[in-house]
Design goal:
Layout lengths: L9 H14 L13 E2 L7 E5 L2 E9 L3 H8 L5 H14 L4 E11 L4 H18 L2 E9 L8 E11 L14 E6 L8 H10 L27 H5 L7 H10 L7 E6 L16 E4 L7 H10 L3 H7 L4 E7 L4 H11 L4 E7 L5 E3 L10
Parallel strand pairs: 4-5, 9-12
Antiparallel strand pairs: 1-2, 2-3, 3-6, 4-6, 7-10, 7-11, 8-10, 9-11
Helix pairs in contact: 3-4, 7-10
Length: 360
């Protein structure tokens, strides 16, 4: 099985996004004026001028993880997922997230579901340390068949302090931060695998999970639904403090990558000539091994679709790598040095030679 056969063709999506971007005009605001666009490689967030500051914006949704939430009848984590997919992108440009707005579309209103989403968004704001500045709900019978949730995050940073990958150098050290699970990417493939093996979200998980990693919402043994609805980790703590008051000057942080759709190929967004080698990957989480086995999925496809246990990568100067790792590990246990920046061309290579990416 692969992601395309489950209905999501990453290559086709890339072509479609390229066509969309090619047809867009960035702004009518001239350079130097408030709201003018700032050129920013990588595409993890957009920057606009705002006096001596930059404002950063990111928008995203929860995706087909909502289908699982709707089938299970549990929405406590989806607001956290929505927040995470947005604020984690802002972190990658060096911005501190400060505010968020949400958009909820449903076939028909349900006060109980809306209340659950509200509580989830409240918890998401607490974890990300942002203000919920507003939102919109829409009832769209005939257009949507089940609840959909998306949002937009706003952040700020000082002019000239943006993190773009431009300062990357051969030998820079890659620090990986563990994920909390599948996060909000690849759920179409997960759903296909579950259907393929005639499993149910209510089934007891046929694999062990580290104690405390999954946020439980049922009594008894851990279910597949609980594992795959586990909320996306929000990385504002520690990354905001790392940038603003960490153990080294922020200039030593050369790049930050949110490992989302596209998996490790996301690293290619950060530089147009340097490469990346992962020689000490973080442990693969149990659910990914189960997905691969049940779906007979090739290892490269797994690393292209899922985070595989590493949700964020920070590239730092070699001389500060140990102090940064010690500091980050105190906030996110399990963080580790996973590899280095290379000068062997714009390619991602891995301990497993079958895992290799030269296009995003």
């Amino acid at each position: 099985m692969d992601y395309a056969s489950s209905g999501v063709d990453i290559d086709l999506e890339g072509e479609a996004v390229g066509a969309l971007v090619g047809a867009l005009s960035l702004s009518t605001r001239p350079k130097g004026s408030i709201g003018a666009p700032v050129d920013l490689p990588g595409g993890f967030g957009g920057l606009v001028e705002f006096g001596d500051k930059y404002l950063a914006l990111a928008t995203d949704g929860v995706g087909s993880k909502l289908t699982v939430a709707n089938q299970v009848g549990h929405w406590a984590g989806v607001g956290i997922d929505c927040m995470a997919m947005n604020v984690n992108d802002l972190l990658c440009v060096g911005a501190e997230p400060i505010a968020f707005v949400d958009y909820i579309a449903v076939p028909r209103p349900d006060p109980e579901v809306h209340a659950a989403i509200g509580r989830s968004l409240t918890e998401a704001c607490r974890r990300a340390k942002v203000t919920l500045a507003g939102g919109e709900t829409a009832s769209l019978p005939g257009i949507v068949n089940e609840l959909d949730l998306s949002g937009t995050a706003l952040g700020w940073l000082d002019r000239g302090s943006e993190i773009t990958g431009a300062n990357l150098q051969e030998g820079d050290v890659l620090i990986g931060l563990p994920s909390s699970g599948v996060h909000s990417n690849g759920l179409s493939l997960v759903r296909s695998v579950v259907d393929h093996c005639d499993a149910s979200w209510d089934d007891i998980a046929p694999f062990s999970v580290e104690d405390g990693r999954v946020e439980r919402f049922r009594q008894g043994e851990l279910t597949l639904g609980e594992v795959f609805l586990n909320p996306t980790r929000i990385y504002c703590d520690p990354i905001v403090d790392l940038i603003q008051k960490g153990p080294c000057d922020a200039s030593c942080i050369h790049a930050i990558c949110h490992v989302t759709g596209g998996g490790l190929s996301n690293l290619l967004r950060l530089h147009d000539s340097l490469g990346w080698h992962i020689d000490s990957p973080l442990p693969v989480l149990e659910e990914f091994s189960w997905i691969q086995e049940m779906g007979s999925i090739e290892i490269r496809e797994m690393y292209r679709t899922f985070n595989m246990g590493m949700g964020m990568v920070i590239a730092v100067s070699e001389e500060v790598s140990e102090s940064v790792l010690e500091w980050v590990s105190g906030k996110v246990p399990g963080s580790a040095i996973v590899g280095r920046v290379t000068d062997n061309g714009r390619v991602v290579t891995h301990l497993d030679p079958a895992v290799r990416f030269d296009t995003y």
